[in-house]
Amino acid sequence: MNNYEVExxxxxxxxxxxxxxxxxxxxxxxxxKSTGNISVMSVDSGEGLTEKTSPFDTFAQVIDGEAEVVIxxxxxxxxxxxxxxxxxxxxxxxxxxxxxxxxxxxxxxxxE
Length: 112
Known about the structure:
- This protein is an all-beta fold.
- It contains no helices and seven strands.
C-alpha cells in the first residue's frame, strides 16, 4: 500500500477514513489512476475551496454534513447522500454549511 491510497481488498467505512481538523481542509486519496482519481475530503466550518475549473467531469457526493456547490454561478445545496456531477470546464466553488465530508471522483478518460 502506498501513502495515498487505502488498502485494497479490505472493507472500510468511507466517512471514517478521514477526520475533521480545526480550521482545515483535509484530502485523502482513495484511488489514483491515470484515468481518474477518487478522493475523500473533510472541510471544517468556515473553510472552503477556491473557485476552480477542471478539464474533467467530477462526481461529488456529500457523506457528512451539508455543502453548497456553485457551478457556473448556480448554487446547489447538497445534504448527506446527495450528489452532483460538475461538468468539465465549468467554474465551480464549494462552500461548507457547517463542516462536511465529501467524496470526489474525477474521470479523465474520454478527453484525450
